[in-house]
């Protein structure tokens, strides 16, 4: 992982001393210093001949039907084989590259990307090919002018999910933040504790005795928002290995 790489390179110091792989862990009162490094594997981004299911393309943008299992852009643990690598191969010399994201922690790794889908989620991803398109769509997403809808199969079905918008369905409103128990996960966290407000509209499209198909419309864009909200409502997404119920997942595997 990225942090293992930092330890291996001596970029993690505990009480002023470099730690080595497999170090003892931390004790109360320890002082930790981390020097974040850019892994050379992140640059340059290489085009890769990965098949893309293109829904629409014009001179300004691409709309791609992302398959589950495909990471949108390079990140620790997924330096290659991403949608960005595939798009770079697709546009080739015809586009002269993709517009860069504004400066940020991983901006050089996500050219043209204005929004993302989780690795296990399939659906439409918009990739911009020009700076003007990038700026306009980034602003539209930030202003919540883009309406997003998802379908998910979940365990069970609440009465509140039944109905139609407006006035039907269910507005799930739980603030979301980084889990204090597992920093790799998100969870419902009070705003006083650092959580950010989050709203998801949920409506049952079809249901059986044990499962339901929901239409979900997030009104905010928090990390893992839909999955966290549905787990909190005791209707987790079927097959979700992070927030779901293992026994239920195995039952329908």
From TrEMBL:
Keyword RNA-binding tagged: yes
Pseudouridine synthase RsuA/RluA-like domain mapped to chain residues: 60-231
InterPro entries reported for this sequence: PsdUridine_synth_cat_dom_sf, PsdUridine_synth_RluA-like_CS, PsdUridine_synth_RsuA/RluA, RluA_PseudoU_synthase
Keyword RNA-binding: yes
GO molecular-function terms, A-Z: pseudouridine synthase activity; RNA binding
CDD domains xref list: PseudoU_synth_RluA_like, S4
Domain of life: Eukaryota
PROSITE patterns per record: PSI_RLU, S4
GO terms of biological process kind: enzyme-directed rRNA pseudouridine synthesis
Keywords: RNA-binding
Pfam families: PseudoU_synth_2
Family membership: Belongs to the pseudouridine synthase RluA family.
Protein name: Pseudouridine synthase RsuA/RluA-like domain-containing protein
